[in-house]
Write a structure and sequence with these properties.
about 130 residues
Amino acid sequence: MRKWLHQVESRSAHLIVLSVAAFGVSMFSTNVFAQPMKAGASMLFSFSDTSCGAWMRARGKRDEQVYLYWIRGFVSGYNYGNAQYAVARMPDMDTLALYVDKKCSDDPLMEFPMAAFRFVEESRVRSK
């Protein structure tokens, strides 16, 4: 794997690794959706600073993409573990960023991962 990473641009490699890590971590954190969601109901691995303030500081910078890929990985993991109630459509990155902006402005004390939980709650549909 190390040899492969050297062949890929450093920035792209970091995004790929972080996306894969977010997918893997979120795959194991989906049991929170079996019941109505409550903060702290499941072990969740994320960033060292999960505040909405950290998200706002990342906006417009390269770090913004890391947060957005984390959400995409989280949603992919949720879908993998909950095929019966899956998120059928993922918005483009700009729309997803605006969604997080709104959630953080509505509740500035909210932790960033809660935006991902809320996105899933609002977007999931029952599969037929």
